[in-house]
Design a protein that fits this description.
The protein is mostly helical. It has one domain. The protein contains four helices and no strands. α1 packs across α2 and α2 runs antiparallel to α3.
């Protein structure tokens, strides 16, 4: 995370576009550590990553209108089993209370 020079790069570390097999544990650990340091910052970074993906998914459609944008977003953010596990792990890590 410390090597990420942009918000987009940091979001990709948090929730990678091309996830590694079994990476959900690492993603959850990263979010938990970030949340301990700055709970709002971790949540905002995830929100921004999801917003960026939604924007990309809904504007990169073939054929004009964005009628299938939501489905395209769902496929892009959690279309594989590993992507879904990563997303669930990251969201669960944000929901856990953080120790002082």
């Amino acid at each position: 995370m410390s090597r990420a020079q942009t918000t987009e790069a940091a979001g990709d570390v948090l929730l990678p576009r091309r996830p590694r097999a079994g990476g959900d544990g690492e993603a959850a650990d990263l979010v938990a550590r970030l949340a301990r340091e700055d709970g709002d910052g971790a949540a905002q970074l995830l929100r921004q990553r999801l917003a960026d993906q939604a924007d990309a998914s809904m504007t990169q459609l073939e054929g004009g209108e964005a009628q299938g944008g939501g489905a395209h977003f769902a496929k892009d953010i959690a279309g594989t089993d590993q992507q879904e596990r990563d997303l669930r792990a990251v969201m669960a890590a944000l929901q856990r209370p953080t120790a002082p």
